[in-house]
Structures are given as C-alpha cells and as structure tokens.
Design a protein that fits this description.
By secondary structure, the chain is α+β, with helices and mostly antiparallel strands. It folds into three domains: about 5-395, Up-down Bundle (Na+/H+ antiporter like fold), CATH 1.20.1530.20; about 400-485, Alpha-Beta Plaits; about 495-575, Alpha-Beta Plaits (2-Layer Sandwich). It contains 22 helices and eight strands. The strands form two sheets. Strands 2-3-1-4 form a four-stranded antiparallel β-sheet, with helices on both faces. Strands 6-7-5-8 form a four-stranded antiparallel β-sheet, with helices on one face. The radius of gyration is 28 Å and the shape is globular. GO terms for molecular function: antiporter activity.
Amino acid sequence: MQGNFMDFIYVSIFLLSICLVRRTFLFFNICPLIGDIINGIIFGPNVLNLVPFKDAFIFLGYFGLLFLILESGIDFNLEKIKSKYKITSLIALLGILMPFGLSLLLIYLLCNPDNLFGFLLAAFSIAPTSIGLSLKVLEENKKLDSDFGQLIISIAICDDIIAIIGFSIFNNLLNRSNEIGILIVLSFLPIIFSILGAYLAYKIWPQSINKILTFFKNKQGIHFEIHEQIVSFCFFILALIYGTIGHFIGSELLGVFFAGLSFSRVDNIHKIWKHQVKRLAKWLSIIFFSATIGFSIPINAMFNLEAFGIGIIIFIISGIICKITAPYLLLNEYKTFVGFALVARGELSFIMADFAFQKNLIDDFHYAILMWVFLLSAFCSPIVLNYLIKKINNKEKQDYDNNDNTITEIRITGAYHHNMIDDILDILEEISYEVISSIMYKHGEKSNEIIKVKNKAEIIPNEVIKELILKAIGDRTELVEINTQELEIIDELNQQITLEIKGINGLTVFNEFCQKLHVLDLEPFTIFSEILIVEQIIKILIKKRTPNNFDIWVKKIRELLDDKINDCQIDLEIIP
C-alpha cells in the first residue's frame, strides 16, 4: 500500500468532513451516528469514491468496534444489576424476543426471504438496543446516574449480552459442522463462557488485580502512573485472551465484552480508560460507522420506495411497539422514557446486518430495509428522549422548590490521588452544580477535601453525587459525606479576612485551622500556597457569609489563631 500527496488530501477531507457533519448534527440535536454513516456513504465507493486505502479504514473501524464493546463491559455496573436483576433481565429478554418474533413474521410476509440463515439473522439484528445512543443522550442530559438512567443502561447492556450470545450461536451454526450433536454443543459454548466470565468478573479478577498491585507498592503507596500502567497492561492482555477464546467459540465480541466486564470493579478503571484510551476509542468508533458500515451500504437500493416503505412498517411495529411494551407492563414509573430509550438501534444491529450482507445471506434489497429500520430508530429515539427529559426536568423543578439558600457540603476523606480535586470539580460542573468554595489539605498520603456547592438546575440525590465522585476519583475506599444545609449567601465580597501563615509549622497550623472554619460559618474562597527557600507561606482569603456581628466573628478568628502560634508568624488583615 503506497500513498501520495493526493491520497493525503482525500483522507484529510474525509476526516474533516466527519468533524463538520458531526458538529452540524449535534447542533440540530440529531444523533451524530447518522451523520457518520451518511458521510461514509457519500465519500465511500458507492458515491464519490474519494477515500483511498478503504480496506485500511475498514480494519481501523473493526478496532473501533472492539473498543465500543470493551467500554460497554467497563460501564456495566454489577452491583446495580444485582439489586434489580429480575426486572432488568425480564425487560431485556422480552425486548429481544418480541422484536425478533414479530420481525420474523413481517420479513416473511413482506420480503419473501430465500435464505434461512439470512432470514433469521436479519430478524435478529432488529432486536438489540443501542447502548451507545442511550448512553449519549443520558450523559448529555446529566441523567446517566439517575435511577431510571441506570435502569436503562442495565437493560440495554443485558439486551446486548443476549444479542452477542445469540450472534455467537448464529455464527457457530453458520460456519461449523452439520452434525446435530456438535451444533448443540457449539450453541451452548457461548452461554457457558458467559456464565463463567460473569463469575470471574465478579469474584476473581478485581481481587486478583489488587493483589498484583500490592507487589509494586512501597512505603509511600503506589504512584498513580505505575498503577495506571499495570492496570492497562493487565486489561489489554485479558482482552486479547478473552477475545481469542470468544473468536473460536462464536464471536470475539463476546470475549471482549467479558474482558471489559472483568475490570468494571477495578479501582480507577474509568479514570484510566479516560486517560489512556477514550479519545482514540472515540475516533475509531466513528471510523467504524463511517467506513465499515457507511462504505458497505448500497445507495441505489436505499432509494427503493418499496424498501423504504417496508422499513417504516417494521420500524413502527418491531422497533417501537415491541420495545415499549415490556416497560409498560413491568414498570411503575418512567414507562414511556425507558421504552423509547430502548427503541434506538445501533452498534450490534449494524454489525449483524453487515455480517449477513458480507456473507451474501441477504441481498441489497433486504440490506436496505434493515438500514432504514436502524437509521429511523437512531434518528427518532434521541429526539423523543430529549423531549421526555425536558418534561421530567420541568416536573422535578415543580416538585422541588429551588431555594437560593440551600448549600450542599461535600467532605471527602481518604488517600490522595493525582488531579483529584480537578476531577471532582469537573464532575460537579457537569451536573450543573456551582462550586461556592473548595479546600484540600493533606497529611502525608492522606487528604481531606471540603467542597460547598449550590445546584443551578434540578436537585440531584446525594447518593448519585456520591457515586459520581467515587467514579471520578476511581477509589471506592474513600469516605464521602454529603450534607445539605440552609445558609444565607451574600454575593458581595464586602466582609473578608486575609490570613498569611509563615513558618516551619505553617502547613500544620493551616490544616488544623481549616478543620474548624465551618464552626464559625466561614467559607474559604481562595487558597494560595507558595514554597520559599527557608519557609512556607500560605495565604487564605476568607469571606463571611452572614453580615451581622462581624467584630465578634473576627474575635473568634483571633482566638483560634492564638491557640496555634507554634513557631509561626501569622498576619491577619481585616477588610470590613
């Protein structure tokens, strides 16, 4: 494969157009996945045919697919599934079986299929829910860690597990022996592997990784960069091993998913994924939809009115009605929202349809029908979900009187982690919480953080905030306490005190002093720390929230400081 400058130009135009189309679709609140596919259709071999090295792009897209499945496994919350496994698994199972059954009937009646395996796989490809689309909508609207958000993701992942197992069984039936006994054994292998993989993921791997990490600890603990490298190495080795096993028993996607699941309970895994893989994985997944899927879509068949009409019928009956039926029957609240969250089709649907098309199990006409079903679901589901989320937000705002005087105090105690405070503040900003004050003080390898915030939008339960913080820190051994209190807020900096602590014991004085600030109803606003050659200078700006009794307040400050001189020079500047 040899390129030239014009190949470079064409590849650059293709990648830049992906960015432009995605931004345009996001601006109009349309699922960008559709834009990726349309971009691939236009630049691919069936329209302009401008992209060189098509096989290389398709191969990179395959990496993107593996990363998508890996991330699905990492995001799987075993604890939350365990608490709601009955309702989750039942909705997921019905959400697969009902669309599959009705799609079989509709395809048989409307399409006259001539290949049994193609007929079965086409119907089955309509069944899975897109966890990627659901995840994206929930993240953008800051609902991922809500009760119904976690329920949706749990159902979607269970849905995907069933779909991956089913796809592995189809693959075995298609490619292996014609003997009934061997086919039965091969059909059960993915199920056995899934049960064993789930057990190892829950009971064995998290503890084993932690034991491996202990070998690299010194007296000061383990540095985060070393921790990150060890976990990353073990993670990708296991993904390679599981993927290879999965390939030989049905599908490498099954193995890769359970590799991700095995690390879902390992400390810092979300942080490591974000630092090491996230950006690359995102681009490769875009290439998957743009090149691997977009290049293969027969554009002429897509404009067949009969294919479009049949696609709409299957989408309405199998895509919408079947998916929302189970939540309506089994849930007490958020029925419509959960139902339409499950309507979206994405990664696995495209994978199975493309597999059937590449293996000549279905022709251009049937492939175009499936593409219309998937594209319509990917287009409509996010629009409906965003509308329903707005209704939920309006209801929550009516139910909760957003009092300007309500302050949430978050106290975090435990081991210090690299960039810890920045990660926490980023999470709080994402959920629309205004940070009023934040302070961190360290004792060796331990740290304490006190953050006070005010919600700018709807209230978020303390348990959800706690879960987000633990995920951001990547260490579930941290003690997180969250309290809500009433406190009058004065925006003007008209009453403040500046402390400057100098001396060998300055940091100790500062730490002890900060622990008692909340007793006096004080809020640290700015902390500036500078290490000099001989001494340490710490400056802290404090603003009083309540305007009354300022003199008494200053007197209490002086009393606190008088107890802690300890070889320190303390300058107290008062700005009334």
